[in-house]
Amino acid sequence: MTSSPNPARDLHFLETALNLARRGLGETWPNPAVGCVIAREHIIARGWTQTGGRPHAETEALARAGSAAKGATAYVSLEPCAHRGKTAPCADALIAAGIARVVAPISDPDPRVAGQGFEKLRNAGITVDIGLCAEQAARLNAGFISRIVQNLPLVTVKIASTLDGKIATASGESRWITGDAARAHGHFLRVEHDAILVGGTTAITDDPELNCRLPGLAQASPVRIVADGRMRLPLTSKLVQSAHTIPVWLLTRPDGDPLRKQAFRDAGVEVIEIISGGNGMLNSAAMLNALSERGITRLLIEGGSALIASMLQANMVDQIVWFRAPKLIGDDGLGAIGPLGLNHLAQSPVYLRESIRHLGHDVVETYRRQA
Q: How do beta strands 195-199 and 298-301 pair?
């Protein structure tokens, strides 16, 4: 027999499932990051969605639980899937295992699921409780939900600047404004995102690798994307030279030189054509739609200032992670955000600060767009 509902125990086990789901951020796209706990009075087994979205969390947990799953409760951070894709439906697996009760926070907005998983479970006689930790679950998979509902990934802008918002001196020197702890935290942000996007000028000036250089996490480096309408990125750049090792996507205009595009493709770069916006830059919404259609759910933008400004102007930035060093450069330095063309304060994008944390001598603040 399954244990009877216990509010404190349900909260603890579902929060555990949500924490397990976080392990998959940046790894499971285009699938959601899901965690699952099989329990009675105590946890029997745990599982989370694996790299590339398979196996699913429920399958992992049930495999570890074995016959002990019969009569137990499954705590899942998102509605179990009900459709057959590359794997069998998780709702069917829970039914076959003899699970007696399922506790989940929210429905899966994917039209192939969208309540059908819960319906399958109920029709099989399984008790289904929905709603506990709903806000946390929605925030955790905000990128997946946004991709399904709006055809847009969750967009996070990362900035590392001085106190006066400068990212480099007038000569372009920027290494290093922030300290070791802040830079390590920045690399961990890369792990939690599916892709990193930078503008063409940043890619040319800095010649970055945009990979994760934390010990043991090199394999978690995200897709690296350059928005470069004029295809100025050198074929000798570090990004292009490593495209066969870690994926590189180039966003550029349809009317660009076809021979230049082929040269990038020959080097292993995926070339994606994007329409231009009215300001001569690539259209922000079109870029994000194209990335969403390729499965990207969580996008990290690391510069430059013009790209960040264009995304802010289009109201496409969901989160800002701002690292501030206790230094000043002055007005001749390079600003973190380009011109927004505002004439009135009421036009300013508004963000709510959610957290502030000290990293050595630096501070990192996280902001969320005001709804």
A: parallel
Using CA atoms, how far residue 318 sits from 35, 95, 227, 312, in Å, is 24, 38, 19, 9
Q: Strands (DSSP E) along 124-192, which ranges? A: 127-130, 154-162, 166-168
- Spot the catalytic one: 58, 60, 192, 302: 58
Q: Is 135 one of the annotated active-site residues of the chain? A: no
Beta strands in the chain (DSSP E): 35-39, 43-48, 73-76, 101-104, 127-130, 154-162, 166-168, 195-199, 223-227, 248-252, 270-273, 298-301, 319-325, 334-335, 351-359, 362-369
pLDDT, tens digit (0-9, with 9 covering 90-100), for 35-92: 999 999 999 999 999 988 888 999 999 999 999 999 999 999 999 998 776 677 999 9
Taking the whole predicted model, whether its pTM rises above 0.90 is answered as yes
The whole-angstrom separation of Cα 115 and Cα 82 is 9
3-state SS, residue 39? strand
Residue 130 in 3-state DSSP? strand
CA 99 – CA 121 distance, rounded (Å): 9
Residues 211-253 have pLDDT tens digits of: 988 888 778 889 999 999 999 999 999 999 999 999 999 999 9
Enter the DSSP assignment of 66.
Answer: G
Amino acid 326 reads P
Q: What's the rounded Cα separation, in Å, for the pair 260 and 201?
A: 18
Q: What is the C-alpha to C-alpha distance for residues 208 and 363, in angstroms, rounded to an integer?
A: 23
